[in-house]
Structures are given as structure tokens and as C-alpha cells.
Amino acid sequence: MGTALVLLFLLALGAVPGALIPQRSLNAGKVDEYLVQHPTIGPWLDRLQMFDVFSSFWFTAIYVLLVISLIGCLTPRIIDHIRSMRAVPTKAPRNLGRLPKHAEGCAVGDPESVAAGITAKLRGWRTITRPDGAGVTVSAEKGYLREFGNLVFHFSLLGLLAAVAAGKLFGYEGNVIVIADGGPGFCTASPSAFDSFRAGNTVDGTSLYPMCVQVDGFDADYLPSGQALSFAADIRYQAGADLTDDIWRDYRLEVNHPLRVAGDRVYLQGHGYAPTFTVTFPDGQVRSQTIQWRPDDLNTLLSSGAIRIDPPAGAYPDAMERRKNQIAIQGLLAPTQQLTSGEEGGAATLLSSSYPELRDPAVAIDIYRGDTGLDTGRPQSIFALDHSMMAQDRLKREKRTNLSLGESVRLDDGTVVAFTDVTPFVNLQVSHDPAQIWVLIFSMTMMGGLLVSLVVRSRRVWARIEPAGVAGTVNVELGGLARTDNSGWGDEFERLASRLLDSGSAGHKEGR
User: Fold this and answer.
1) Helical H runs in 351-435?
2) What does the alpha-carbon distance between residue 414 and residue 284 come to, in Å, rounded to a whole number?
3) Cα angle 372, 376, 381; round to 5
4) Is 120 helix (H, G, I), strand (E, B) or coil?
5) For residue 306, what are the β-bridge partners?
6) How far apart are CA 235 and CA 431, in angstroms?
7) Location of each CATH 3.30.160.110 domain in the chain
8) d(Cα 395, Cα 375) in Å, to the nearest integer?
9) 478, 466 in Cβ contact below 8 A?
10) In this protein, which residues make up the domain named ResB-like (predicted)?
11) What is the DSSP-derived secondary structure letter of residue 472?
12) Are 465 and 67 in contact (CB under 8 A)?
């Protein structure tokens, strides 16, 4: 047990870096940022797997050694407990007066009948009567469930660790942003359907449970301060045979009330807004795009993002010219606009948001024309433009403006950019953990075992009954011992002694 406690301490100590240092499994971008900001210590931490603590070789080694140590510790204990359950109570000590608790008294009757009466009053105790010279002794014990509860607690802890490990091996978790109010939805066909996907060591992404989800609407309630009171999404989903039968089922998805389908759980994690921009090119052709923008202020949902729009085919004579006339938009979105004065104290031009609900949406945007870099093959963030293209003057800013919903701005070549709509989006998380029910079961049995081990107390009581000098009476001597917790044993022993010596007693003398 000492080894197990040391390993448990090391496990807790090893988890500290996972709470203090960014983890790749949670936010790979934060890890890259940390490495840039700490060029000396960052690579060393990476070699020690400090950015992947909970999947590192050293954390796994401590985890496995802890499990082995617990098994090695509990196996002999359960053998000893089985032996103690089968054993009879121990013989009475020769001198009961030396025990921590002691009482004496006299009773009418012979030793055998008095011993039988004492045994009858010790209901719930395991008892045995033995001859002792001219008299008899009664040995009684109770509290066997204390050790049983302790063993249940520790074996449940082992089961909990095994269930968590199984969930990490065979489970997966994916996050995806879905536009509400008629957005395209998503299907769990492969990991590529998710914006981020974390798979267990045995999951290759080819056996995901088939399911499709569409978000028909989103509702949110806010306090006057702007704090979210509640939010929920009305969704439709298909799963299993419904996909072939084209049957859609409705569900009200709320926080902490996930959709459960065949072992998968769909959680509502968060929400935000997706603006729609419509670009009318000089030849009259129109292109629109709706994409989510990232909430930068969770209290007001002031969001930032970017949109890239390609000219339609035929708008420009060749592909090179078409690439040079791509439209890019980057800026801020305020659900409820609030304008403040600029640095010069002139007109109100700085946009912020005063409330997270869509009451008076507006955007503050920079409009660019040129090569957005989408054809370079380099990955780009959907929330920001490629600054290297700006540095090379391949993407040039044409206009900076504020637009309320429905307003538009015209560029020098006649291109019109309009802010036409704002749609809520939701962040959904799909989780699959085949060991989840076992985690619940082992957690409940662990708490039950801990409760039993704390409530039940192990006690021993002995009674020696010997003939007294007066015919027809016997001397009764009681002794008690608390095997584990001694708290409250004094009052309990006094009540027990009073009950055992009161009926038919010729006299009762309390000891210590």
C-alpha cells in the first residue's frame, strides 16, 4: 500500500504540467504559440512530452505501475478477509480488566443460561460460547463489512481506471460548427467531417457510427448584464436505418442534455454568429458566402473573422486575372452595435458590441482585392487572411467601412459588397465512449464502498461468566476493544454493558 500511495502521489504530481502547460490534444495552436515564445525551454519540454502529458510514456508508466501495485496490494488483503470471514471470534483474554473498556456485574442463574441470554442480546454480532474452567466465556465480533467496503472501494478504483483507459482506447471525440436556420448540417461519415477530431489509439476513423444532423433553429436567453441564462438548438437527425429510409427525427438539444444515439452523444458546446456577405461584380454576377466568425468577447459575442469570395466564371478573361480580382473581407461583427469616437474625437467610428443578442447587428470591415492565397496549397485560418499575401502586395486593401445589416459599399471598379444577413451557429461535440456506463457503475460502487468503510466500525466484546459465592448467582465480567476507530466506542460500550447486565442482575458495577 505504501508503494501504491507513492505512485498515486507521483501520478498527481505528473498531472500538474498538464494543467499548467498547453496540451496539443486540447489546443495545438496554443502549443505552437508557446514554442515560439519560449525558443529555449520549449523544445526541451517537447522532447519530454510535456505538451502531451496524459499520453506520454512516463505518465503511462506511472499509471500502469499504479494499477499493478494496487492489484498486488489488494490480492493478499482479500485472501485475508475471506479467512477472517470464515474464522470464529477469538478467545477471551485472560485478564479482561486490562482492556480499554471494562464492566462487571452479577446475575441470577447458572453460567450456561446467563451466557445464552447474553448471546441472545448480541443480535447482529458473530458469537461463540466456550467453556472456561467452572464458567463459560462469550466472544463476539462485528464490523466485518468495514474491510469489505474498503476492498470494494479499491477494486472499484481499479475498475474505474480500467474503464477510463478502455474509453481512451476505443472512444473518439469530434467538434464541428454547424450553421443554424437552414445550414448544410453535417454527417459523421469520416473524421474529415469534423473541424477537430480526437481518436482513441484503436480508432482509425473507418467505423464511425453513421449519423447526420441539421440545425433548424437556435434560441438563447440572456440576463440584462449579457450573461447567457440558457441556450438550446432545435435539430433534426438521422441515424442507423433512418439514413436509408430518409427519416428525420426532431430533438431539442440543450446544455447538459445531449442527444444519445447508439452509444454516441451529441453535446451543445457553444454558439456564435455567421455573417453573410453578398458581392455583386462589375458584370452583374452575384456571389454570397456565409461563414462563422470567432467570438472574441464571450459577454457581448463581439466576433472576428474573414471571408474569401472568388469571382464567378466568365467575369474575367483568364484565370490569372480572375485570381487578381478575388474579394476578401476581414473585420469585426457586433450583434448589438455600439459606436464610439476615434482617437481624434471625431465621428463615431469604433465598433463594439453592447449585448450578445442580435438586436442591431453591424460589421467593421476591411475589404481587399487580389490573390487570397487559396491556390498556393498552404493551410490558412478561416478567421484571418494570409498576411504574407498582403506583405507581397498581392492582396491590397480597397476600403475600410462600417456596415449595418442591409447596407452596402461600392468599390472603385463598381464591385458592390453588401452585408446581407447574420445567422447563428452552434458548436456541436460528438463523443463516443463505450466504457461510459462502466465508469458510472464503478464510480457508484466506489462511493458505496467508501461510505461502508467509514460508517461501519469493527468491535470486539468478551463476557466471562463464573459462579459467585452465593448459590444461584454468577459474576459477569465484560471487556471491549475497538479494532479500528475508537471514536464513540465508550458510549457504545456503556449502552451495551447496561443492556447485557440489566435483566436478572443482582448487581452492576461499571468499570472503565
Assistant:
1) 387-391
2) 10
3) 60
4) helix
5) 330
6) 17
7) 88-143+457-510
8) 13
9) no
10) 1-494
11) T
12) no
Distances, alpha carbon 510 to alpha carbons 111, 183, 502, in Å: 20, 83, 12
What span, in angstroms and rounded, lies between the C-alpha atoms of 447 and 453? Answer: 10
CB-based contact 458:305 (threshold 8 Å) = no
Cell 487572411 sits on residue: 385
- CA dist 158 and 442 (Å) reads 9
> Residue 474: how many CA atoms within 13 Å on its side-chain side?
25
Crossing angle of helices 436-455 and 144-170, in 10° steps, is 160
Cβ contacts of residue 423 below 8 Å, gap of 6+? 179, 180, 181, 183, 273, 274, 276, 290
How far is residue 144 from each of residues 82, 88, 147, 150, 151, measured CA to CA in Å?
10, 12, 6, 10, 11
Cα separation, 291 vs 180, whole angstroms: 11
Percent helix, strand, coil in the chain, to 5, is 30, 35, 30
CATH of 88-143+457-510, one of 3.30.160.110, 3.30.70.1150, 3.10.20.580, 3.30.450.30: 3.30.160.110
| DSSP code at position 295 | E
**What residues have CB less than 8 Å from 346, skipping those under 6 apart?**
none
User: What does pTM read for this prediction?
Assistant: 0.69
Q: How far apart are CA 122 and CA 116, in angstroms?
A: 10
Cell numbers for 189: 461519415
222/91 Cα distance (integer angstroms): 72
Residue that has been written with the C-alpha cell 471525440 in this structure: 173
Whether pLDDT at 191 is above 90: no
pLDDT digits (tens, 9 = 90+) for 314-343: 777 777 788 888 999 999 999 999 888 765
223-233: per-residue pLDDT in tens? 888 888 888 99
Q: Where does residue 383 rank: exposed (0-12), middle (13-18), buried (19+ CB within 10 A)?
A: middle
Residue 504 has what pLDDT? Answer: 44
In 240-293 the beta strands, taken as DSSP E runs, fall at 249-254, 259-261, 264-280, 286-290
Specify the residue for cell string 466472544. Answer: 139
Strands 101-108 and 259-261 come out as unpaired
- 120-171 pLDDT, tens digit per residue, is 888 888 899 998 888 899 999 888 888 888 889 888 988 888 888 888 888 8
- DSSP H/E element including 145: helix 144-170
Over the stretch 349-386, which tens digit does the pLDDT of each residue have? 788 899 999 999 999 999 999 988 877 777 788 888 98
Q: Is the pLDDT of residue 187 over 50?
A: yes
